[in-house]
Design a protein that fits this description.
The protein is of the alpha/beta class and 223 residues long. The chain has 9 helices and 11 strands. The protein folds into 2 domains: 129 residues, 3-Layer(aba) Sandwich (Rossmann fold), CATH 3.40.50; 82 residues, Regulator of K+ conductance, C-terminal domain (Alpha-Beta Plaits, 2-Layer Sandwich). 29% of the residues are buried. Bound molecules: adenosine-5'-triphosphate.
Length: 223
């Protein structure tokens, strides 16, 4: 498959497991990435795999200016265990005028502090991975799950056996379970907002939206 043309320019600061994964996935998606780490060994290891990679201490504003950090659309701060370095880097980037700074936090307290000093987005990867695993373990029929917050989720599930052969209207998903069907994956095709007369087949996968409770109740139909 042809690669997408480069569309955005990112800088990723801190090339541990998380930062490296973000950077390499952005490159995979056709974007330009400047990788930054203060450890020259890490920089050397990744030199062949990134668009550009430099060794510098990101808490130093002059060093950030020297790599023209303002020219990047988004800067990701992926420093985890050294929170002080993460915080000082975030402050420096916002001070310099970087438009979009995305930070990694290890807990909600760090998330709060980073937001207060101007981070535009703060992610809690371990928190999020833990929540995803808990959903997968407690709802084995769930294929994919996206937490929308405020008690709502989008989920992909195999059609529960009792619904096979029923139309969407007969299934009464909205009325009985408070669930809306966004799409059906049928024979490798995606049917977006299926019509009420759509008949569920055994191998169908459905994409639903609803409250976390209603999705759990619906998943129980498959048990
Ligand atoms: P992961 O879980 O993603 O492996 P971590 O949270 O355990 O990461 P850290 O040691 O906190 O890892 O930092 C990730 C990377 O950030 C390391 O490679 C480290 O060298 C780099 N780093 C830490 N402080 C700075 C800094 N001030 N400037 C640039 N890079 C830094």
């Amino acid at each position: 498959m042809a690669r997408k043309p480069s569309r955005l320019e990112f800088a990723v600061i801190g090339l541990g497991r998380f930062g490296r994964s973000v950077a390499l996935n952005l490159i995979e998606r056709g974007h330009t990435v400047l990788g930054i780490d203060r450890d020259p060994n890490i920089v050397q290891q990744l030199a062949d795999r990134m668009t550009q990679v430099v060794a510098l201490d990101s808490t130093n504003e002059d060093a950030l200016r020297a790599v023209d950090i303002l020219s990047f659309d988004t800067v990701v701060v992926a420093i985890g265990s050294q929170f002080e370095a993460n915080l000082m880097t975030t402050v420096a980037l916002k001070q310099l005028g970087v438009k979009r700074v995305v930070c990694k936090a290890l807990n909600e307290r760090q998330q709060y502090i980073l937001s207060r000093v101007g981070a535009d987005m703060v992610v809690l990867p371990e928190h999020e991975a833990g929540a995803r695993l808990a959903w997968q373990l407690s709802e084995p029929h769930l294929l994919e799950h996206l937490n929308l917050g405020h008690g709502f989720s989008v989920a992909e599930v195999k059609v529960p056996a009792p619904l096979v052969g029923q139309t969407l209207m007969q299934s009464g998903l909205r009325r009985r379970y408070g669930i809306n069907v966004l799409a059906v994956k049928h024979n490798g095709k995606m049917i977006v907002t299926p019509p009420p007369e759509y008949v569920f087949s055994r191998e169908d996968r459905i994409l639903i939206i609803g409250t976390d409770n209603s999705i759990s109740t619906f998943c129980d139909l498959s048990s």
